[in-house]
TrEMBL record:
Domain Aminoacyl-tRNA synthetase class I anticodon-binding: 339-473
Domain of life: Bacteria
EC code(s) of this entry: 6.1.1.17
The encoding gene: gltX
Protein name from the UniProt record: Glutamate--tRNA ligase
Species this protein is from: Rhizobium jaguaris
Length: 485
């Protein structure tokens, strides 16, 4: 039991590589629980059945554990308020949705995806923010019953007040007021019977006795919907805290299109978890110069949730490098350093698989560094001359790299077979031979036109490292392409 009654949670969606933003929000919740003698809970929000996968869920759990975060309840450790995976809780939500409908606070919507898209297109053309127009709001009870009985697909939406505004207090932003006419008639229950994030979020937080909800500021605009759901169900909402988003140095939102954002990228490059948590934790505390090197316990001791900044948290990679270097030099013993190096080299079987692929390709062991070194490098430092031996024009190379990068993102299972299948499919779609497609990829991934087998190498390196190397290769090749007329 908690000593304070405080219960907080992190609720990631397993729809992609775990983001450093997830670690940032998780760390805040972890420190908040630690500061107040409360409980830190992990819940998997997989209501998006088309994008959620067991592979990504495993990656989320592994990444948060690597960060040094420990939860007292979750899908892997159980707890008194489980299950802790929303897809396992599907039958829990419908009675709550029905209660909202029966009380007159929700309604069944039969609008087709085609009608909704036409509606949104018309609103955008008129310069209006896209939101539901209330088409099904006034259907008679008889008509609704008839259409439901006929098996017509439908969703359940929530009603929104037509006048006034939603006023609430946020732990970071203070008193907030959002007009009701800016709030959409949110879908609560999808046609497949699964709740939307908003509905499941409220029900789960209530049933799991969550006292404080700390999440990214992008969810601030959703608070009125959540408060309404709590009110419609006659429940007490938790206290809300919306943390500033992490941003690039130019203040743009941190995204994988600009910079590496996957936790797996930072593990692969040899960052240590204590340094990453130290770096992220500095956003939540006030310190004097020279006090930057802090352990998790020291972060918790200095943690002050009453004095948080609304300014964007700048993800300064140079500062992270500096902290990581200090941790390696000042905090690790010789034995611990050697252990960390070996653990890092063996991560995802990188060393083992690299050696297996190398055995038939060398005549002496001294050739191994040149052949396998790319598997362990932080940066290949590609030069445009690296692509000189490839017969394709710079324009064709750039087209290939810019096509392959987003197409590989669509792969759910990242392994040799799926990578090869996708690259063959790309070659077919582009009307090119496979060898034309893979030639620049060899250079982009390994820094050389001759290396270990490409598909195997990409699988070993992992999605996040390959993504970054393809992006940097495209930037390098772009210098060879003349300006457009």
């Amino acid at each position: 039991m908690t000593t304070s009654g405080v219960r907080v949670r992190i609720a990631p969606s397993p729809t992609g590589e775990p983001h450093v933003g997830t670690a940032y929000i998780a760390l805040f919740n972890y420190l908040f629980a630690k500061k107040h003698g409360g409980e830190f809970i992990l819940r998997i929000e997989d209501t998006d059945a088309t994008r959620s996968t067991p592979e990504f869920e495993t990656k989320v759990l592994d990444a948060l554990k690597w960060c040094g975060l420990k939860w007292s309840e979750g899908p892997d450790v159980g707890g008194p308020y489980g299950p802790y995976r929303q897809s396992d809780r599907k039958d829990i939500y419908k009675p709550y949705v029905e209660k909202i409908v029966e009380a007159g606070h929700g309604f069944r919507c039969f609008c087709t995806p085609e009608r909704l898209e036409q509606m949104r297109a018309a609103q955008r053309a008129a310069g209006l923010p896209p939101k539901y127009d209330g088409h099904c709001l006034n259907l008679t009870a008889e008509e609704v019953s008839t259409r439901v009985a006929a098996g017509e697909p439908h969703v359940v939406r929530m009603k929104i007040p037509t006048e006034g505004s939603c006023k609430f207090h946020d732990g970071v932003y203070g008193d907030v007021e959002i007009p009701w006419d800016a709030v959409d008639m949110q879908v609560l229950l999808k046609a497949d019977g699964m709740p939307t994030y908003h509905m499941a979020n409220v029900v789960d937080d209530h049933l799991m006795k969550i006292t404080h909800v700390a999440r990214g500021e992008e969810w601030l605009a959703s608070v009125p919907k959540h408060i309404l759901i709590y009110q419609y169900l006659g429940l007490e909402p938790p206290q809300f805290m919306h943390l500033s988003l992490m941003r690039n140095a130019d203040k743009s939102k941190l995204s994988k299109r600009k910079n590496p954002t996957s936790i797996s990228y930072y593990t692969a490059l040899g960052y240590i978890p204590e340094a990453l948590m130290n770096f992220l934790g500095l956003f939540f505390i006030q310190i004097a110069e020279g006090e930057e090197l802090l352990s998790m316990d020291e972060l918790a001791e200095k943690f002050d949730p009453e004095n948080l900044s609304k300014a964007g948290a700048i993800f300064d990679i140079q500062k992270l490098d500096w902290l990581n270097g200090r941790w390696i030099r000042e905090k690790l013993s010789e034995e611990e350093f050697q252990h960390r190096v070996l653990t890092w080299a063996m991560e995802n079987n990188r060393l083992r698989e690299g050696l297996k692929l190398s055995q038939s390709r060398i005549s002496k062991l001294g050739e191994l560094p040149d052949l396998t070194g790319f598997l362990f490098k932080s940066d290949l430092n590609l030069d445009p001359s690296a692509f000189a031996k490839i017969k394709s024009t710079p324009e064709e190379l750039l087209e290939i790299l810019n096509t392959v990068q987003p197409d590989l993102e669509k792969i759910l299972e990242w392994d040799v077979e799926t990578i090869e299948a996708e690259l063959r499919a790309i070659a077919d779609r582009m009307g090119k031979k496979l060898k034309v497609i893979v030639a620049p990829l060899f250079v982009a991934v390994s820094g050389s036109s001759r290396s270990l087998p490409l598909f195997d190498s990409m699988a070993i390196l992992g999605r996040s490292v390959v993504r970054q190397r393809l992006k940097l290769a495209a930037q390098t090749v772009a210098t060879l392409v003349g300006p457009k007329n």
